Amino acid sequence: MIQHRPNLDWMLKDLAESVPQTRHVVVLSADGLRMGAHGTDTDTADRLAAACAGLQSLAGAVAAELPHSDGQMRMVVIELDGGFFYLMAAGAGAYLAVLTDEGVDAGLIGARMRDLVARIGQHLTSPPRHDGPAA
């Protein structure tokens, strides 16, 4: 069964354009499939989405080591030569990833990502896929 997903690209564009020095914005499923993107070509968005799946899994494993954690990743920030990478949980089985230049306002991008997730989080949910015929 194919599920229709709303086109999220315009909302991602709004995020990118409201924070100077934002390069790429990608929404992905927990298994690394691109659900939407802005500011990037399809191949780059797909590579970022695939890398994010491993990163969110790693962050969840680390979170599980905290005594009062439910093991769920909320946000990961990585400082890179030339920029920053942000990965935020954005609904059940969905994530929002942003790659920025190094001069970005880190507080502003984090706040805008949280605002976007709060506004459209239910639309960013990616239900688990099941193999085999649909019932």
UniProtKB/TrEMBL annotation:
Residue ranges of the TM segments: none
Domain Roadblock/LAMTOR2: from-to ranges: 9-100
Annotated InterPro entries: Mycobact_SerProt_Inhib_Rv3364c, Roadblock/LAMTOR2_dom
Pfam families associated with the record: Robl_LC7
Protein name per its UniProtKB record: Roadblock/LC7 domain-containing protein
Species of the source: Streptomyces alkaliterrae
